[in-house]
Design a protein that fits this description.
It comes from Pneumocystis jirovecii (strain RU7). 27% of the residues lie in helices and 22% in strands. It is of the alpha+beta class. It folds into three domains: 431 residues, Glycosyltransferase (Alpha/alpha barrel); 209 residues, Golgi alpha-mannosidase II, domain 4 (Beta-galactosidase, Chain A, domain 5), CATH 2.70.98; 67 residues, no CATH class.
């Protein structure tokens, strides 16, 4: 191959030295987090894959700082943006109604869900949603509703605990800035139960994206039951009792209870004061006009009027808020049973709406807590329904209660115009002759490499990173260097390496799991749940498949005919992660959480701190890849859906993952970390699962660097992080993470980034998913702008 390249190119553009790839990987370890000292085990291994042959020292390039001479050389761009993208479109349209491809063998998963009603087992099960702890493992780890946390407690007085932790109770690491903060677990303020619920039976039904119904029955009865509709953001925890005698316990302890007389209404109100001096309100709504009373007996709150049929709610009174009780009274008895999601995209504007399916008590309006990213995107009507009732969430800042049955949120800056090529707001990429020479030299060297030897066929994740690298290389050759002959050679080599995955010819196959309804690798069925980063157990699917889809989108853009060869296979990967509807084959949006505004990586692994996500950038990489592939096949609904999700991600990530000094949502002492590290539902830990090194912690929120990176990671954020966190360590880094950090710097200082990659560059600073040719394209595209 190298001989062929040399025949085509002028030899002055070829590097005669050879290359060394330090294939640095990151490892999404989904082993259960330990609660000991509330820290992660920093001794988890770093996976390094190194090709030790062929070392290069590019000593022939001048190290002096260069001033690039601008030219009118611009990318050869074929527009894939349909004019229809600027028309209103319902984004929740099915991708296809067919079953998964037959190449994915049907298998039964070795891990079976627990306590799900038979009727719900016939439907795809959400694996990555907030309530997964209810049907996994011991079933006794918490479920994070926000602002409340609930937990199933079996045994005597089986029931559902209700907890809430105020900010002053949160635990912070002692280092500066603190490396983690968390909410302590086990502070059960109120526990719903009944006298008849000794060794009660738990059952789940109506498993939806933002809600689940939990029912507890006595061992020998299905008529007697306690059902709780659990909905994200609920202002009250609600239990519907059927012929049971209500009973409540508390780990904190009941200090006193006060019954409040309610005139002209057939319900009962109690003010409960716990030994931590927190006040909770309890409301009882009998189905019929009956008496109801509660008494404290040995720290147990018992109903004294026998079996009860009706609804009981508890809610916490925010501290230091004299108006809260009246507002909570005014909405008592009304609660949400589920949230229906809808969305319309019109060009650069996206509207998404929560419509609450409610039970309404005598005209009382629904009261529901919103997260900060909701509030900052509410339309004027929704924003006008704000109350002054608020409670802190676990890891998403202060939540505020709003009145109303519908929330409408607007995103005004959808990335409609961002495609395959480097992006900087208000600018167009262009390349100097000098930059093109450097790009050409790097591209030709990378084209001469053996693609197959760099593919780790035992893992979709590592393979996908390499495929993305070579797809970008093909894009550089075809559209920047505009060499169609060599582009064809690149496409041929890429196709040869990629198609065995599409044709399922590798040792470990992708299969269709009929238990949880998804596409998984079968590797974990023989090598254990943690094989391939837990992919067989639905961990990190959006990370893994995102790279494969991204690579396919680029090749399909270059060669539209090739898209037909992989289209159905890619669409099934997209359906596994981000099916827009809940159909017979896949759940809707396995990974993306429409309530918190970002994805969760952890699959069917029980976890005391709930779901987590380690890489915000690999999160948005999936949806960007989905957008690009949608563009190549003309699926405007998919493109608009991805644009909306990317806009929501930009807002939520800057709220909860990426921290500028202006952030008022996260604890101020935590902001100097600049990134979350691993964000759990209950804690945020500035670390990774694979290394405590700072460059890894920050860098895992950067890779891969693509056109969408500058949309999410703003120049101001990038520069601030560089100046205050990275500049002091950059000269101590001697592996592929150095290249990642400098590539990211191109967002704010493209010339400085370009100088690094073009001046005596040592290829040991490239990780296995990085192309020097692409980094040069990305950094030089705007290197002549005044801001550089």
């Amino acid at each position: 191959m190298l001989k062929k390249v040399l025949e085509i190119l002028d030899s002055k553009y070829m590097s005669k030295e050879s290359d060394s790839y330090n294939l640095t990987s990151h490892k999404h370890n989904i082993a259960q987090e330990t609660q000991v000292n509330n820290t992660l085990d920093h001794d988890r291994s770093i996976t390094l894959r190194t090709n030790s042959t062929n070392t290069i020292n590019n000593t022939n390039t001048s190290s002096t700082e260069k001033t690039l001479t601008p030219t009118k050389t611009v990318p050869d761009k074929r527009s894939t943006i349909s004019p229809d993208i600027y028309k209103p479109i319902n984004v929740f349209q099915p991708i296809t109604e067919r079953p998964p491809l037959s190449i994915f063998e049907n298998v039964t998963h070795p891990l079976q869900p627990k306590s799900i009603f038979d009727g719900d087992l016939t439907k795809p099960i959400h694996t990555n949603k907030f309530y997964a702890n209810f049907f996994l493992g011991t079933q006794e780890f918490p479920t994070y509703l926000d602002p409340y946390v609930v937990t199933w407690v079996p045994g005597n007085y089986s029931g559902i605990t209700v907890s809430h932790v105020d900010d002053y109770q949160k635990v912070f690491a002692s280092d500066n800035p603190p490396s983690y903060f968390l909410s302590p677990l086990g502070i059960y303020s109120v526990v719903f139960s009944a006298q008849e619920l000794n060794n009660g039976i738990l059952a789940l039904s109506s498993l939806d994206q933002m809600s689940v119904n939990v029912t507890i029955t006595p061992k020998n009865s299905t008529e007697k039951k306690m059902s709780l509709p659990l909905v994200r953001g609920a202002a009250y925890i609600t239990a519907i009792y059927s012929d049971l005698t209500p009973l409540f316990t508390s780990v904190v302890g009941f200090k006193k209870i006060e019954k409040v007389e309610i005139k002209n209404y057939n319900y009962f109100k109690f003010i409960i004061t716990l030994y931590d001096e927190k006040r909770w309100l309890l409301y009882a709504f009998p189905e019929k006009k009956t008496l109801f009373n509660l008494e404290i007996q040995n720290n147990i709150l018992k109903a004294t009027c026998g079996a009860f049929n009706g609804t009981i709610q508890v809610t916490k009174v925010p501290i230091n808020n004299s108006d809260a009780e009246n507002i909570l009274d005014a909405s008592a008895g009304t609660y949400a049973k589920k949230i229906t999601l809808s969305a319309i995209v019109d060009g650069k504007t996206g509207n998404y709406t929560y419509t609450f399916d409610i039970f309404q008590y005598k005209g009382h309006s629904l009261l529901h807590y919103a997260m900060p990213h909701h509030m900052s995107s509410f339309d004027n009507i929704t924003a006008s329904k704000r109350t002054n009732v608020s409670l802190p969430s676990t890891t998403n800042g202060l939540m505020v209660a709003y009145v109303g049955e519908c929330w409408n949120m607007i995103e005004h800056d959808l990335p409609v115009d961002i495609d395959f090529f480097p992006y900087s707001q208000g600018k167009e990429p262009e390349y100097s002759d000098e930059a093109l020479k450097a790009i050409k030299e790097a591209a030709m060297y990378e084209l001469s490499q053996d693609f197959d030897s760099q593919i780790d066929k035992n893992t979709i994740y590592f393979s996908g990173k390499v495929f993305s690298k070579f797809a970008l290389l093909c894009l550089v050759i075809n559209n920047i260097l505009k060499n169609k002959t060599l582009a064809e050679e690149c496409l041929k080599k890429f196709n040869h390496s990629y198609m065995p995955f599409v044709e399922n010819l590798n040792e470990y196959k992708l299969v269709y799991d009929t238990t949880w309804n998804g596409i998984v690798t079968d590797q974990g069925f023989t090598k254990g749940p943690l094989a391939d980063f837990g992919a067989s157990y639905y961990n990190d699917h959006h990370f893994h498949y995102g790279y494969m889809i991204f690579a396919a989108a680029i090749i399909s853009y270059i060669d539209p005919a090739w898209a037909e060869k992989v289209k159905d296979w890619i669409l099934d990967l997209i359906r596994d992660v981000a099916n827009p509807v809940h159909d017979s084959y896949f759940p809707a949006f396995r990974s993306f959480d429409w309530f918190t505004g970002h994805s969760w990586a952890k699959g069917i692994f029980e976890s005391p701190d709930g779901k987590d996500e380690e890489s915000s950038s690999e999160d948005y990489n999936f949806y960007f890849a989905m957008k690009l592939f949608g563009m190549t096949i003309g699926d405007n609904a998919m493109v608009s859906r991805a644009n909306l999700i990317l806009a929501i991600l930009k807002r939520s990530l800057h709220s909860y993952f990426l921290y500028e000094s202006s952030n008022t949502i996260m604890p101020r002492v935590f902001l100097p970390n600049y990134v979350s590290g691993i964000k759990f539902m209950n804690k945020i830990h500035h670390t990774t699962y694979f290394s405590p090194r700072l460059e890894c912690i920050q860098g895992i929120h950067m890779l891969p660097l693509t056109a969408i990176s500058a949309y999410i990671r703003t120049p101001s954020f990038v520069q601030s992080e560089w100046d205050n966190k990275l500049a002091s360590i950059i000269n101590t880094i001697n592996d592929g993470w150095k290249g990642i950090l400098f590539a990211n710097l191109a967002i704010s200082k493209p010339k400085e980034s370009y100088d690094f990659f073009s001046s005596c560059f040592d290829r040991k600073y490239l990780d296995n998913g990085s192309s020097l040719a692409w980094y040069l394209v990305y950094s030089s595209a705007f290197a002549n702008s005044a801001e550089s």
